Amino acid sequence: MGQPEIRLGGIESENHPWKIRLVEHPKRFESSHFRAAKATARKILHTMDDADLPYGPRPLAADAGAEAGAANSERWEMHHGGSLWVKGARGWLMYRARVGIEWSMQFCADPAKVDRLRLDAAELVDAFPLTLPALAELGYERAEDLLRTPIEDADAVEAWTDSLFNSCVPLSHGNHQGILPSVPGEHHYPWPVKGADFVRYDDFQLWVTLPDGTHGAVAPVDRRGSGDGHVRLAFVPEGSVAAPAVAEAQERGLMAVLPANSDVAMQAFALQVAPGRRTASGPLAPRARRDGSRTSA
User: Fold this and answer.
1) What totals of helices (H) and strands (E) does the chain contain, helices first?
2) One domain for residues 148 and 197
3) CA–CA distance, 2 with 92 (Å, rounded to integer)
């Protein structure tokens, strides 16, 4: 099978190789909108108890590549993921917008469609009347103007993209931009799978190494304690040997399932099975019965 036809300057070719150049970004400046939003988000995060943080524990400086012992012991990375911060009776909460606008995606964003996000955010904030006074108290006085002003041009899209209501999903470096086999980040792995990192049991291994050496994610096929050790392939990279099977399963409305005695299932349930057992099916190990906490990646 030949290479796809590529047209270059009017010349047709079937064997012109793919070429990908790695080039530097145009200089990305931090807008005043983003600086103000980040400063406000960090003030909010410092008022929150660890148990109330949206995505796992506070990151340490070393987690973000900073030197251990740096003066700023917390190093959040702010993800442009649709961060709808509101103040409720029990304190600050963060909801996710219908869609977040990544920084580079603002350049293809239709102002009319972004304005729908503004209207959604305004309706949510209006349901939490403590929010705007609390933001003003923190020095983020532009919040009401952002929520009430229709988005009609590129400047307004930029202001919304870098605002507190889009740009400040607080993540550790790994959860933001990490790549397996270390930590899977939201930029590289699909959110419906990555999101499970923040609700899974500590003793279930979501991310596994597949037989071909690639890394994927699995899910149990039944509830905890059922004794069923089969696992469903929830995500595999395109280059994986398993990718065609997962794609076919999705196309046909089926599940791609691995047996309970497979290496993948044993990885996933390793902390839930007794030492020496050769299958993930069966009763929970005693230590696993006691484990009910939740985790982040």
Assistant:
1) 10, 10
2) no
3) 57
In a domain? residue 151: yes
Measured distance CA(140)–CA(180) in Å, rounded: 37
Q: E strands, 210-281, where?
A: 215-220, 231-235, 257-258
Which structure tokens are listed for 38? 């980040």
Give DSSP secondary structure letters for 66-111. PPTT-S--B--EEE-S-EEEEEETTEEEEEEPSS---GGGGGG--H
135 and 241 share a domain? no
Taking Cα atoms as reference points, which of 187, 193, 185, 219 lies closest to residue 205?
A: 219
In this structure, what DSSP letter does residue 190 have?
Answer: -
Number of domains in the chain: 2
**Which 3 state secondary structure label does DSSP give 7?**
strand
DSSP assignment, residue 60?
B
From the list 182, 112, 177, 141, the residue with the least C-alpha distance to 40 is 141
Residue 107 within a domain:
yes
Whole-model pTM? Answer: 0.79
Rounded distance between C-alpha atoms, residue 146 and residue 166, angstroms? 11
Please give the span between the terminal C-alpha atoms of the chain, in angstroms, as a whole number. Answer: 42
Distance between CA atoms of 218 and 267, rounded to whole angstroms? 10
Q: Domain range for residue 197?
A: 178-289
Single-letter residue type at 206: L
CA distance 192 to 49: 26
pLDDT, tens only, 129-173: 999 999 999 999 999 999 999 999 999 999 999 999 999 999 999
Measured CA to CA in angstroms, residue 136 lies from 47, 118, 142, 143, 238 at distances of 15, 19, 8, 8, 47
Q: Which segments of the chain have a pLDDT < 70?
A: 1-28, 61-74, 290-297
Contact call for residues 147 and 118 (beta carbons, < 8 A): yes
